[in-house]
Structures are given as structure tokens and as C-alpha cells.
Amino acid sequence: MKIVIVSSSDLHGGAARAAYRLHTSLLKNDIDSTMIVQKKVSDDYTVIGPETRFKALIDGLRPAADHIIMKFTKTKTLFSTSYLPFSSIIKKINSLNPDIVHLHWILGGTISIEDLSKINAPIVWNCQDMWPFTGGCHYDDNCNRYEDNCGKCKILKSNKEHDLSRMVFNRKDKIYAKIKNLTVVGVSDWITQCAKKSKLFSNRNIINIPNCFNTNLFSPIDKNIVKDIFNIPKDKRVILFGAMNSLSDPRKGAKELFEAINHLKVENTIFVVAGSSKPKIPLQLKYPTYFIPPLNDEVSLPLMYNIADVMIVPSLQENLANSIIESMSCGVPVVAFDIGGNKDIIKHKYNGYLAKKLDSFDMANGIEWILNHKNYNSLSENSRKTVLQKFDSNVVSKRYIDLYKKILGE
């Protein structure tokens, strides 16, 4: 069985790391897996990136070119048209003659919509966000127009039926019809149900299998040791908030979180923002605030999570947040809104706290509930136990292998 996994990158970003983790787990299970990426970060010889420095330079410019449409709109929410042609990735895929091509996050100029129909092998496509079945947005802000045909795009602040989102939607509709063997994987139950309601994936096989995680790497470490590494006071309890573009993307919920932080009534506590350098204009928060710049490697991330006593993921829409599972795998309970795929991971008041949707006061209640819990160690143990049972690489990769075999009729 020969599998080719395709992703924009191998380690740059959460979706890329999810793809790479599956790739390495398949290899450990004696599956012939090769990963093809537009931007290669690792030195792994089983990952195929640009062949030359010049090609790497050109490919490095493709994400900016693919997202240029955002420069002409008022949206801060990611919107991708996937128009950019001349990618060499399809040629690489077909030259390997794989049994199955497993697509993950393929935006940023990685593959155009039109090129998808040129893939010769059966396709498995993981929905790491909503883009595969929308007219271009990565999260739809609950407009649900992907169930019909998009247009009047809420993300683009458009009142026109035949706007850019309708154009992208129609391109997908035309190309998807040419793909004979396509299996769609929703990595959370929420996005699986969204995909089933979508017009673009009607009559497709849609299943739910989560991303996989290396629980040996993401494991509990002595907090005093890791606090020294990040220069965090040892005598303070830590509230951690981390996300790529955490302070610039409204969907990440920084506004709601900061309101919650200022509602808190806890002492001897500090706030740490991960994934962001210190901003020019200080955050107006009642607690001392520390910043950890973006981290992408699989060694420093587990260290970062282990500084925390509680992790906050205040996203307004969320699929299956790596940060929640990674944190819980390190034994750190999580507070998040009761939205999207969060309930796939967090069991309320068992391994964390699901706050009422967009309710900053209840988020503050959740933070206080965890920090003041009489048996904090039980929350920590339950957090890790959940990840070991549902999201460990060995558990999840076997489900993907079974899926591949089913598709191939084995």
C-alpha cells in the first residue's frame, strides 16, 4: 500500500503538523508513506519539498500571491480562492503512482482547485477547516450558505448573490464532479456534520476520524524546570493562551478572553500569551502578562504547554484545535467555549470546562473553577487519559489504515 500525503508544509502551522504526525505514524506501522509539501521545514528525507533553492523561493511567494484577494476586502478572516496555477505538486504526486492520495491543508498556492481533478489515484481529503466545502472562507461565521451555493458572503461583507464566493463555489462544483473516488474526513464530529450538509459534498462518503498526536512528546514535565526555560516566575500560577495570529484574527477570541481575564478574581496568577511577541501597545489586563513568540517544533511546544496551570482556547468557531489536545496531553486542563469540535475533546468538569457560547463571564467562571479546584491533579490526569484513549497516534493511525484498506477493497 503506497500513500502520498499532501500538505502546504510539514511543520509550519497546526494543520501541517497534523499531516506530518500522521505520515510518521504510518511509517511506524510499515505503511509506504511519502509526504509532498510546498514548504519543507524538516530535514526528513521522506518529505518531498521544492527541488532547488530557486523553486523554494518561488514557492515561498505563492501563499502571499494566493491570498492577495484579502488585500482588497475588509475581512480579517482567512479567505482563499485557490486560483494560482503552475504548481508542480500534481506532477510529483502522479509520478509516484500512489494507491491513495491523502490531502490535508492544501491552500496558500499549494494546489489550485482545477488541478484536483488531475490526481490519478483515489483521494482522501481531511477537512482541517471548512474551506473544502465553502466558497472560499475557512470558517463561515455561522452563515451556513455553503449548504446551498454561497453568495452574499458574510465574510466578504458582500450583498451580491454572484460575488467572489459564488464564483469559487461554482469552480469547486464543476471540478469536484470530475473526481470519481473521493472520501471526505471530518476531523471533528462538528465539521463532519457540516460537510454532510454541504452541497459540494452531497453524495460523498464522509466520515469522522480525528488528527493524531504523539503523546510521548506531549507529556507532563516538571513545571519548575520549564518555567526556568521560558523565564516565567515559579511562584505564580499560569493562565496560558496560544494561537497563531492570536491577537489579529477575531475568530481566535482574544477580545472575549481579555474580557474574561479582567472579570477574574484569583490571586498569585499571571497571564501568558503564546504565539505572539510583545505588542507595541500594551494589553490592558489586570494581571502581569508575558509573551512567548511563535514556536513550530515538536520539542519546544510541549515545554511551553507545561508552564501552564490552565489553557484557554476562546475561539468563536473551532474544528479540532491542536492546542486543546496538545495541552491536555501534557496534563493541562482547558477552558473553551461550547462550540464546534471542542466537545469532542473536553468533557465538562471532568477534564476541563466548556463555557457557554461567547459568554466571557462563564469563561472567567471556568478559569476560576479549575485554578481553585480541590483536586486539580484529577483534572490533570483525566485530561491526559482522554488524549491517550482517543487521539494517540497509534490509536488514530490504525483507523486511517483501515480506511485505506476499505477504499482499496482489501
- Say which CATH homologous superfamily of the largest domain is assigned: Glycogen Phosphorylase B
Overall structural domain count: 2
Query: Which range does the strand content fall in?
Result: 15-25%
Low-pLDDT runs of 5+ residues are none
DSSP helical segment count? 13
Main β-sheet description: 7 strands, parallel
Alpha-carbon Rg, integer: 21 Å
Binned, the helix content reads 25-40%
- Which CATH architecture of the largest domain? 3-Layer(aba) Sandwich
Can you characterise this structure?
- By secondary structure, this protein is of the alpha/beta class.
- It has 2 domains: 2-212 and 392-408, Rossmann fold (3-Layer(aba) Sandwich); 223-390, Rossmann fold.
- The protein contains 13 helices and 13 strands.
- The strands form 2 sheets. A 7-stranded parallel sheet has the order 3-2-1-4-5-6-7, with helices on both faces.
- Helix 9 links the parallel strand 11 (310-313) and strand 12 (334-337).
- It is globular.
- The model has no long low-confidence stretch (mean pLDDT 92).
